[in-house]
Amino acid sequence: MDKIEKGFIINSFHGAASIYADATKKLGLWQSEKYAFEKYLNREDAILDIGCGTGRTTFALYKKGFQNLTGIDLTPAMLNEADKIAHEYNLDIPFILGDATDLPFNDSSFDKAIFAFNGLMQIPQRKNRTLALKEINRILKPEGLFIFTTHDRDKNENYLNFWEQEEMIWCVGKQDERLYEFGDIFTSGKTPQEDTYLHIPTKLEVLECLEEARFTVIEDFYRSELFQENDDVIAFSSDCRFWIVQK
To answer: Does the pTM exceed 0.90?
Structure first.
């Protein structure tokens, strides 16, 4: 059985592109995102929206006056939808096909970067997620900021029994052979035909990766502890930890 690779991730999102496009038009920014972006982004900043998908965060930021934006995503179908929405809104935003582990930009190209909706944790293997963090560090200007989200394996009490069972499965080597590390799971995708790969880290794991990539944590918070998101946001996304880190 083949391990999860980049092609699996692309295929997972290909069929759901239209669903994400609808969410882009309907949801806009979460309350938690509004807080983080308004606090840490300046309107004159050059901002890279990594894993931009169909442009939910990109378009919402543009409309709030953050107009020096570039979106990048791994999935062509998602970018096609983003381009359609940009044309519909008559907005001139570059959307680029690319991989977070090998960003097609020069060193120190951006003031800020974001990676919304736990996208960093949909990169298979810790070494590759750390590589993506190093790439993001590289393309940021000195003291540049990076805002992203992850799940937190130790935070959600509703899943403690699940992770205890998972640990026993991994200890005896009976996990899904396509996965790499404890914390890797398949979740239901946005379409019935597709499952989605996701890594659920601990806070310590994320801190270790950030240290290796030479980032300093400025702030982190668990979404539900500070914000009550609306029903549409909760239905579309699960709880997560926000990270604001500096090069």
So the answer is: yes
